[in-house]
């Protein structure tokens, strides 16, 4: 059912959180917009102005790699300045008291870790843009190093160990979903008693399958999103309000 107003939504959510022993949040771009991170998929967002560079193009074309890195450097001020918002902090509070075993996220901004989640308890379905990896051997590189090499060499650097290209640690279009993360996300979804989808339009598959998976495994499902989602019909509670305002009251938990 759809909460009639934010007050009743927060109240019902509070009851469900109190009753739940294991809560799994699933977060999308909407939780990070108040932190200044744009929703790349939104109308007018970066991806509607700049065609995303598919993985095979990144691998085969040095020009595409240079362009990908130039775009990433252009976003650095935004990512570097972003701090966890009220939604992140509320989830971190519930994590600290043991209610949340882990968070599943479509976001690449590292803000769950910054809010206090241990890195191993953040299941990143689309990777992480705050560091880089060699696509061959997987060696991790920090972004200042990549930038310095880029500026020195005038183009995207390759791995110092195996000479394969270095890419942000994100999952690009055309790249396989990360198997280990998909498996862990499914385990979390199947073993919680409350699943909260936050700030995701729930249209990108296979990620969007997790709310349904949780529901089918007996969990209650809450959807918090400004806009209607494709799965509102199967949710036990839908809160169509601002995420920071909806979750803010739970920071003190
Ligand atoms: Zn390598």
Short description:
With 253 residues, the chain is of the alpha/beta class. It is built from ten helices and nine strands.
Spatial shape: elongated
What is the count of helical runs? 10
Which sheet architecture does the biggest sheet show?
A: 6 strands, parallel
Instruction: Report the sheet-strand fraction.
Output: 15-25%
Our Rg estimate from Cα atoms comes to 19 Å
What distance separates the N and C termini?
A: 25 Å
Helix content: 25-40%
Within the largest sheet, what's the order of strands?
Answer: 3-2-1-7-8-9
Total beta strands: 9
**Uncertain ranges:** none
Hetero groups in this structure are:
zinc ion
Classify the secondary structure makeup into a structural class. Answer: alpha/beta
Give an overview of the whole structure.
It is a single chain. The protein is of the alpha/beta class and 253 residues long. It is built from 10 helices and 9 strands. The strands form 2 sheets. Strands 3-2-1-7-8-9 form a 6-stranded parallel beta sheet, with helices on both faces. Strands 5-4-6 form a 3-stranded antiparallel beta sheet. Strand 4 and strand 5 form a beta hairpin. Helix 8 runs parallel beside helix 9. The longest helix has 20 residues. Zinc ion (ZN) binds next to loops.
List keywords for this structure.
253 residues; alpha/beta; six-stranded parallel beta sheet; elongated; binds zinc ion
Question: Layout of SSEs?
Answer:
Blueprint: H1 6-19, E1 23-27, H2 46-49, H3 55-60, H4 62-81, H5 86-96, E2 103-105, H6 111-115, E3 122-124, E4 127-134, E5 140-141, H7 143-153, E6 166-170, H8 179-190, E7 194-198, H9 209-216, E8 220-224, E9 237-239, H10 243-247
Parallel strand pairs: 1-2, 1-7, 2-3, 7-8, 8-9
Antiparallel strand pairs: 4-5, 4-6
Helix pairs in contact: 8-9
Bound molecules: zinc ion.
Residues 134, 136-137, 139, 159, 161-162, 164 line the site of zinc ion (ZN).
